[in-house]
Write a structure and sequence with these properties.
Blueprint: E1 2-3, E2 16-22, E3 28-31, E4 45-46, E5 55-63, E6 73-78, E7 86-91, E8 100-105, E9 114-121, E10 124-130, E11 137-140, E12 148-162, E13 165-170, E14 178-181, E15 188-196, H1 224-237, H2 248-272, H3 283-295, H4 311-318, H5 328-332, E16 361-368, E17 378-385, E18 388-395, E19 401-404, E20 410-420, E21 428-429, E22 436-440, E23 446-448, E24 458-461, E25 467-470, E26 480-487, E27 507-509, E28 513-514, E29 522-531, E30 534-535, E31 542-545, E32 552-560, E33 563-569, E34 578-587, E35 592-602, E36 608-613, E37 621-629, E38 637-638, E39 643-647
Helix pairs in contact: 1-2
Amino acid sequence: MAAVLEPSDLRDNVTEYAALLAGEPRPRLVPFLPLPADGGLPPPLVLNVTHPGLAYRVALLARDGRAWSRPLRSVGVLTRPLPVDSATISDYREAPETGVVFEISSPPNNVFSRVNISYVEGSDLRSMLYKDFYRGKTVFKHWVPGLCYRNVTFQLISEATINRTAMVRHSGVTHRPLQHRTVPNAPRNITWKLVPLSQQQGAAPPPGPPPQPRQARDVPLLEEEFQGEVHADAEEEYPSEEAPTEPPTQNATATTASADDYADANATATANDGDDGVANGNETAEADEDAAFRRRPFGRPAPTGTPPPPPADRAAAEGEEFVNRLLPEYEDSDEPGSALGMPRPSAPPPPVAPPTRLPPLLLELHWLPPAPPTHYDGFSVYISRDGNVTETATVDVNTHEFFTEPTAPGTYRVLVTALSSAGDCEARESSASSAFTFYLSPGGRCMEEPKERPYSVNVRLLGSSTAAVSWGPSAEGHNGSLISVLSTTCLRPSLNQRMESTYCTEENTTSDIITSLTPGAQYRVVVYHTNGPLISPPSEPVIIDIEPTGVRDLVVYPLSPTVVILSWQRPYHVAFRKYVLQTFFFNPVTLASEWTTYYEIAATASVIASVRVTDMLPAWYYNFRVSMVTWGDPALSCCDSSTVSYIT
């Protein structure tokens, strides 16, 4: 801000002029430079303000050499606020569909009365004045769900009334324009159902011989005699329609055995080729036959490790056409025609049980469009099983249904959301509050997740260590309940003072009878409804306090006419914070008899405790009692019956 001295402001016999700046906590006096000798005016005076946007009053003062005069003239000035440094837009947590939180940051000591918020809504440029910025934040709750708001800027405004004239100053806009998309409204009335598909789609194939496994290669036949034997084996392997059909496992075994026999025959024929004796007497035909046999592929080799046959059996085998036994020399032989150079297949893997498949079911989803006004471009469907997303789909705005077939048992979670993606803003989907969960058993039974929490939960103590839990009936279907029990006093004492050993961490039980409670402890009980592996929201917690057992065997041991020792025992199974020793006697000072606390002893693991009582009046009647105080909130005390009397 600059102050300029005009010719009309000059006075006679004035040697110095100054500007008085008022408006800040302390007024400031800033003198002008001395008047030039040529009679001109001094240069403008620059006034630095510490509170931009504040209204100031500038007064002109003159001095004739001794003191400053009264203001000759004054002018009101409204300074311009500094622009916003940075700004952010975030969702209003309670209603992200229509509400946003504006947060701006401006320089310190910047004064403004309102904020002009400008933005582009669709294709229209809009602005609004907002004044409720508390600590730079405000909540706006009137935007359209799912719409992209662009070029959001914040301009600070200062307002003041000077000399009955309203003055307004606007700051500049230097921050980066923002954009924000509100959350679209969720689809309405989402319904679902599981429909069993027709049995025709899952019907079994017509009866007949089961399909047989094929060999890796087709082995061509050697001669007609060999064809007859293979054909006979095939007839034994594939029975006729009149013969009883064997299970598929037996057929597969028979096929494997037949292939092994055929491989044994080929191996035996190869091994016999090296012998001197010729079975048929036609040596040339046998050599041609052997060469053709070596060029043909082999079937699956038979298992190794067969002991070598006796010489007599081997000689007998030379005279036979085929031998259904594998000779050990065949696998170790490196003669032409042997299988030593061929890769040996690995052993077949163990059979794997096929995954459990559900009966044919169809999941149908139906919904209605979101409540207007909502801007959205389609719908997204998310289906997850046991925490893993198994299927996602996006449909257009005119589609309000979706169908899929569950293929495996498990816990399914289905979510249908409205999708808004038009414009420059980031695409957003509606909230997941409309998701639903159900469980499919291996047999196809559907169990819905309970939505209703248990109510009217009541816990009734049956004894010092047992309690019964009851609750009101539920309108939803469920097949069980779960009770959660947690001790609120177990972890309060130090480790050497801890007397509880159960329910120190949250434990769940399906029985409505809670056992193993500790006298003197405090417990928090919560009930859930269960439907298979699914669980409902928790009930309101119920706090139960169990009174301590108190002490026993309270005994007085006199040491002198004015000193005694009190000793007592406690049960082992009890939890408490401290002992409180109280005395009852006629007080000669107050002329009254009342119970007063004499001593407090912290609880320990010892079951025996004692305390020394001194300064007793001689020949006086005293009563003593010891009680236990628990860790609960509020604390319980027990018991007044543990008393003993004594006369000094």
